[in-house]
Amino acid sequence: MRRVDLLGVDEVPEGTLTMAYADGVDQVVVVHANGVIRAFQGICTHEYFELDKGFLTGGGSPLPDGSPAGTLTCALHLSRFDLATGEALDPPAELPLATYPVVIEDGRVLIEVPDGPLLVNE
Ligand code: FES
Question: C or N: which end of the chain has fewer Cβ atoms within 10 Å?
Fold first, then answer.
């Protein structure tokens, strides 16, 4: 396993999403919604389209407190992805987004991933 530093916590305020680059090349979309920072593959699983051009939307799986985790909607064909699981909730996307476990350390957002290239669903 390895940790990859993506960006500062202050670069992704609550209610926003932004693209980061793991190892300077792999696109990772970092989402801060409902008090949780999460990281997903930066490109949609349907076609090649950057997910930081998408927008945060409601719904999604319930969090432990019962509130919905929220969803990320791809701007190209409007598939929604569940922020709790990465699952595609609407067509045309079928595959889930790859999700990368986030660690917050010293004001930085890091992901903890296996050695080697980032896993991406496509
Ligand atoms: S490219 Fe994202 S839904 Fe089609």
Answer: N
Residue 55: both structure tokens together: 């927008």
Angle at 12 between CA 90 and CA 73, to 5 degrees: 10
Q: Measuring from atom 1 of ligand 1, which residue has the nearest CA?
A: 47
3-state secondary structure of 57: strand
What is the atom index within ligand 1 of the atom nearest the CA of 74? 2
Is 5:110 a contact under the CB 8 Å cutoff?
yes
Ligand 1, atom 3, residue with closest C-alpha: 77
Is the distance from the beta carbon of residue 43 to the nearest atom of ligand 1 less than 6 Å? no
pTM: 0.96
Q: Is 96 in the pocket of ligand 1 (CB under 6 A)?
A: no
Residue by residue, pLDDT tens for the chain (122 residues) are 999 999 999 999 999 999 999 998 999 999 999 999 999 999 999 999 999 999 999 999 998 889 999 999 999 999 999 999 999 999 999 999 999 999 999 999 999 999 999 999 99
| The domain over range 2-113 is classified in CATH as 2.102.10.10 | yes
